[in-house]
Amino acid sequence: MKAIVWLGAALLTLPALAQPKFTLTWLVREDLFAGLLANDHARFEKGVETLNKVGRFYPEAEVVSWQGLVESTRAVWAHEAGQPEDFRRHYALSIAYFDHVRGLAAKDEFAKRLLGIFEGGTMVVLNERLPESMRAAAWERTYRSYQTLWAMEQGSLDRLPLHMKGEVLAGRAASAFRTGREEELKQALALIQEKMPGTPYATVAEKWTDDPASRAKSRIACISCHEPNTLKNLLERKPKSE
């Protein structure tokens, strides 16, 4: 109960929100990603509600990146529910949000990194659930996003946390595969196996290398992330006196 009260106070206080431990990602990722990956609409909308409440306290590029993820997810759900008008509206919004971040990225390294993470990471999960006629263009956007991220991170690859390293390489592999860039795919798969032995990423990369037919049937990106309750665990680690 104390943790719930403490979080409520934090959400209403700008200095508390500004603390590095409570980035926007900490506050919304669990509900938004859990909702996206599990098709849990109620949990997803809980994350949207949090985003709407606290977004004004965070950088524009970060907020708009999350909004792009939100609208991409709503678009796919509308398509799968047989609601073409809603699909077109949400998908157009998602593209507009990501294009806005792309505009910010021209002068902002933070926005450039977010574009790779959010447009790339969102679309790599959702592209195959779009109308078939739209998938090629969507994968091309995804590839460009991951190329941006790869250009920024390849020099520091060995210093990246496991998850970030995996997603940079796996996103590059998935988007290269879906856009027919075989040589880049081979390079990415080889790097995953070299840099990340014994991980879920390496297991899939080895299978993709040995059995090309498996590539269309399995996912290599977004396979070790978004564990539940990370914000809850963080709150439980806070000193009881705070």
Description:
With 242 residues, the protein is mostly helical. It has a domain at 160-230. 73% of the residues lie in helices and 0% in strands. The protein has 12 helices and no strands. It has helices at residues 2-11, 14-18, 24-38, 41-54, 60-80, 84-105, 109-126, 132-153, 162-178, 182-195, 200-210, 230-237. It is globular, with a radius of gyration of 18 Å. 35% of the residues are buried. Residues 1-20 and 226-242 have low confidence and may be disordered.
The biggest sheet, with number of strands, parallel, antiparallel or mixed sense and barrel status, is: none
Range of strand content: under 5%
What's the mean pLDDT score?
85
Helix residue percentage: over 70%
Continuous helix count: 12
- How far apart the termini lie comes to 13 Å
Global geometry: globular
Instruction: Kindly name the structural category.
Output: mainly alpha
Q: Spell out the helices and strands N to C.
A: HHHHHHHHHHHH
What is the radius of gyration computed over CA atoms, rounded to a whole number of angstroms?
18 Å
Quick one: how many beta strands? 0
Low-confidence stretches: 1-20, 226-242
